Amino acid sequence: MLTTALVSDALRDPLHPTQIRRRDLRPDDVDVRVTFCGVCHSDLHALATPADHGGTFPVVPGHEFVGEVVAVGVAVTDFRPGDPVAVGNIVDSCGTCTMCRRGQENFCAEFPTLTYAGRDRVDGSVTAGAWAGRYVVRDRFVYHRPAGLDPAAVAPLMCAGITVWEPLRSAGVGAGTRLGVVGIGGLGHLAVRLGRALGADVTAFTTTPAKAADAERLGADHVVVSTDPAAMQAARGSLDVVLDTVAVEHDLAPYLGVLDLDGTLFSIGYLGPVTISTTDLLIGRKRLASAGSGGHRWTQDLLDFCGEHGIVADVEVPPATQADTALARLARGDVRYRFVLDVRDLDAPQPA
Ligand SMILES: [Zn+2]
Ligand SMILES: [Zn+2]
């Protein structure tokens, strides 16, 4: 079917509505009417990456979305028209490698198919994202959305949320865990909220003193302004697990320093080369780890947990026509804490 999508045709080309074609339903496909889709740092990156550096144009961004099922393929048994659903940044994987068999499709040995600018495993076409009226996706990568949660505020759980959830779960964060969260933004504000709901004692690290009160509102038990050397010194050796969500390159040593014996630092915000001294790991037998996105198992676990605990993201919800403004503000860090585009009108008839 045809649907209206926000497309950027080339580097620095503003997003504009264009008709695109979604594939006819395969037996295991679900056709979703998209209602809300988040704005992620990955979208900024995709729109700002030249073709000779791996960028793909034209591109339709958007990979954390919610909506309702319109129709299902003949082999789909788990979804019916009208079901509230959510989809993240993976829409297919090989299904047979050891990672896929463990429900960790995000680490598929053949690389998962991304929601946009990915390569469809059946017809080889380039995937177009969910800043669009409709999205067609394999049923395995569609998730039931809990009732009672604001749909727009659920969308960021599908990328920002799951990116912090897998490390929280794999590290066994629970009652009494001393958890640090570095950076109070799209990922960090959800890490504070989820950590608190898991029963952890949460310390938020921020460079912005103005965010201290906000971190407490989100559930942080303690706030450390990381530009204050005395405060960082006082926090040394005090934490079991730290999630570092800062998206730009920075020194990890201070955050290894706040770990206690056998503590783990997850670097999940900045993806790129980092330099550390192994001495910072040696003293206290510390671990440096990372994580990204989520597989089937933990994604449904996250949604179920958020349904039980009433957890959603803090969102600002502009109409789809303001996508470029939202992107510009995100680039400046001017959002608390996630933009989610309202795309419900994209497929509405336009005035002649
Ligand atoms: Zn994302
Ligand atoms: Zn696989």
Describe this structure in words.
With about 350 residues, the protein is α/β, with parallel strands linked by helices. Helices cover about 25% and strands about 25% of the residues. It has eleven helices and 17 strands. Helix 8 (about 255) links the parallel strand 13 (about 240-245) and strand 14 (about 260-265). Bound molecules: zinc ion (2 copies). One zinc ion (ZN) binds near residues 93, 97, 99 and 110.
Which class of secondary structure composition applies to the elements?
alpha/beta
Radius of gyration: 20 Å
Distinct ligand kinds? zinc ion
Helicity level, as a percent range? 10-25%
Outline: globular
Entry summary:
By secondary structure, this protein is an alpha/beta fold.
Considering the chains and any ligands shown, give keywords for the structure:
352 residues; alpha/beta; 7-stranded mixed sheet; 6-stranded parallel sheet; 17 strands; 24% helix; binds zinc ion
Topology:
Elements: E1 2-7, E2 16-21, E3 29-39, H1 41-47, E4 65-72, E5 84-87, E6 90-92, H2 98-101, E7 113-114, E8 134-138, E9 143-144, H3 151-154, H4 160-170, E10 178-182, H5 186-197, E11 201-206, H6 212-218, E12 222-225, H7 229-234, E13 239-244, H8 253-257, E14 259-267, H9 278-282, E15 287-289, H10 296-309, E16 315-316, H11 323-331, E17 338-342
Parallel strand pairs: 10-11, 10-13, 11-12, 13-14, 14-15, 16-17
Antiparallel strand pairs: 1-2, 3-4, 3-8, 3-17, 4-5, 5-9, 6-7
Helix pairs in contact: 4-5
Bound molecules: zinc ion (2 copies).
